[in-house]
Design brief:
The protein is of the alpha+beta class. The protein contains seven helices and nine strands, in the order ααβαββββαβαββααβ. β3 and β4 form a beta hairpin. α5 packs across α6. It is globular, with a radius of gyration of 22 Å.
Length: 213
């Protein structure tokens, strides 16, 4: 904080020394943007990380957890998820199926799936509240994942060929048991974007645990 105060004091002093020595507007922008970033972003991240140490379990606990077919693994916005969030679904074979820009689909072991994320990332595990819905979704995923040919943020909710992570999971439940994980009744329109954080808020799912890497 002392260094920050000195930096601001120097900034003000230089600004009022006269037109011939007035700093450039780019420096003003950098000084203000840097201050706002430290205040709004870095501070919030530090507080969030401190809370997670008390609330979340270490990632090793996720490996010991008994996951069931249809369970959803969600990683909130982070650098490793391109600040969009990412999610995968457990298949009948225990693998994590997820549509990915470099895939377009991967079927990873849980251990390998976790290695795709950076240290400090968070994992939230969800399970359907309805019996057998997860099993049916898992079966659909294994039967249809090879039909995904392109990673695309497409609004057509019926298209399997052009897909992305959360839409694929949405389809797995919607096409088998009719569950609308978005709960926005977009099924009638068959159009929309199914963002990962939308599924995170679905009342059709329950949280089994939260973990940090």
């Amino acid at each position: 904080m002392k260094k920050e105060s000195q930096r601001i004091s120097t900034f003000i002093h230089r600004w009022f020394k006269g037109p011939e020595k007035r700093i450039k507007w780019s420096e003003v922008y950098l000084a203000v943007a840097g201050k706002m970033h430290r205040l709004l972003v870095e501070g919030r991240r530090a507080r969030s990380a401190a809370r997670r140490l008390h609330q979340d379990l270490p990632i090793t606990a996720l490996g010991q957890m008994k996951l069931e077919p249809g369970d959803i693994l969600y990683t909130p916005s982070s650098e490793s998820t391109y600040y969009a969030g990412h999610m995968g679904i457990i298949g009948l074979d225990g693998k994590v199926y997820h549509v990915h820009p470099y895939g377009p689909v991967f079927a990873d072991s849980l251990d390998w799936y976790i290695t795709r994320f950076y240290e400090g990332d968070r994992f939230i595990v969800f399970r359907s509240r309805f019996n057998q819905a997860g099993v049916k979704a898992a079966q659909w995923v294994q039967d249809h994942y090879k039909q995904v040919k392109f990673y695309r943020l497409q609004t057509n909710l019926r298209s399997i060929e052009r897909n992305y992570c959360s839409k694929f999971i949405y389809q797995a439940y919607q096409f088998t048991t009719g569950l609308d994980l978005w709960s926005r009744k977009f099924v009638k329109l068959n159009q929309g974007y199914i963002y990962p954080f939308r599924i995170e808020r679905s009342p059709e799912l329950e949280v089994l645990g939260t973990f940090y890497k």
